[in-house]
Design a protein that fits this description.
The chain is mostly helical. It is built from 16 helices and no strands. Helix 6 runs parallel beside helix 15 (about 320-350), helix 6 (about 115-145) packs across helix 16 and helix 10 (about 200-220) packs antiparallel against helix 11 (about 225-230).
Length: about 400
């Protein structure tokens, strides 16, 4: 998931890079002082916020009605029986994660361009950690309640989950979706070391994308766990494709950027089909077609490309900013606490399946709003300020 901001760091326009010099001389025959045009801050890409929410709702649809497992206990039966027709569509919702990764590549490149390493780290930590800590604590407490029939992790594992290191250490996860955050953190580390630290520029970013693409392919061929862990062959094309789309956002005529996006899409659809497609089998909950998977992956790339090219600039409604702000906390809490809400609404109160589905979504969005207002808005700026403060 993309737990990222779609508001770019201020960048100078091409016109701002050239000083404007008056052709009129002063009374003493000397030229007047050079007037430097100030760079204009780029406007917020609100359509990106809307796409982020769509991706989060896709993932929620998958978790509530597109798979079996723990959610079946919440419904009291398989989600296939609850949604006889829609469950086949909901099964594609897991690809919302891949769309998140494309968005993340776009926005991390945008926010990291021209930013020092300390500032980049502070912005990522202050964006990820407050809601994440709150979600881990909240889910741990709720699952520990006697009335909740879901197993809570041990106190030691819950504490370790606060570090985001539970995935590589093989510890039980409090949040099922946190595996995507581990992928995001590894992407941030690669981008920080290879792009932000030496200083972001077009040539360096193109070399980073090309090098990562080649290294990921080699890692896949080598079948070496350490290389897979660092280079993430299965997800790298989506992050790299997002980076290429940001280069297109800066210059739509950049042939290298279009090449990066094209290769990333080709690799990305391959990995998505390889991991999510299987032959029809009654023992499986759902059957996704390879063409359906390719279409959803293509939708993610095309949607971000439309935003990059400015085709969706008309979608500039303020409520999209609010939607974008709710996406990350919603993504964190929707799965596990959604099970609790579904069981309460459907089994305890007898609310029909489709109404329960919508009511659970609304409940998780309300909880996300509370986390945004009470946690992110209060702790985020303080954490960023503390991490950005230079050492004396």
């Amino acid at each position: 998931m993309t737990s990222v901001d779609s508001k770019p760091a201020p960048t100078a326009s091409p016109e701002a890079d050239t000083a404007a010099v008056s052709t009129v001389t002063g009374t003493n025959g000397t030229p007047p002082p050079r007037i430097i045009a100030r760079p204009r801050a780029a406007s917020r890409l609100r359509a990106l916020d809307g796409l982020r929410l769509i991706a989060a709702l896709m993932v929620a649809a998958y978790h509530y009605g597109g798979r079996d497992g723990e959610v079946a206990k919440a419904w009291g039966s398989s989600a296939k029986l609850q949604f006889p027709t829609l469950h086949e569509w909901f099964a594609y919702g897991c690809l919302g994660v891949h769309i998140f990764f494309v968005i993340s590549g776009f926005v991390i490149c945008m926010s990291g361009w021209g930013r020092p390493l300390r500032s980049f780290f502070a912005s990522r930590a202050s964006r990820l950690l407050p809601s994440y800590w709150a979600a881990v604590i909240l889910v741990t407490v709720v699952f520990a309640l006697p009335v909740v029939a879901y197993k809570a992790v041990s106190p030691s594992d819950a504490l370790l989950n606060l570090t985001m290191m539970q995935q590589p250490l093989g510890v039980d996860r409090v949040l099922g979706v946190c595996w995507t955050l581990w992928a995001e953190v590894r992407f941030y580390a690669l981008f920080a070391l290879c792009v932000v630290m030496p200083g972001a520029n077009r040539q360096g970013i193109i070399l980073f994308c090309a090098g990562w693409t080649m290294a990921a392919a080699i890692a896949e061929a080598a079948n070496e766990p350490l290389l897979d862990l660092v280079l993430m062959p299965e997800y790298a094309p989506f992050f790299i494709g997002g980076i290429g789309l940001y280069l297109i956002h800066r210059d739509r005529h950049d042939a290298y950027a279009w090449g990066i996006v094209g290769v990333s899409w080709l690799l990305g659809q391959h990995y998505a089909v390889a991991s999510l497609w299987h032959a029809p089998n009654p023992d499986f909950f759902s059957y996704r077609t390879s063409s359906g998977i390719i279409l959803v992956v293509t939708f993610g790339f095309v949607a971000v490309a439309a935003i990059a090219l400015g085709w969706l600039n008309w979608a500039n409604w303020r409520w999209l900013t609010v939607a974008g702000a709710l996406t990350y906390p919603f993504y964190l809490v929707h799965e596990h606490l959604g099970w609790v809400a579904i069981k309460a609404y459907h089994q305890s109160l007898g609310i029909p399946s489709y109404a329960t589905f919508l009511l659970t979504i609304a409940t998780m969005l309300l909880l996300a709003w509370l986390l945004n207002r009470l946690v992110e808005d209060r702790l985020g700026p303080r954490l960023r300020s503390a991490l950005s403060r230079p050492r004396r």
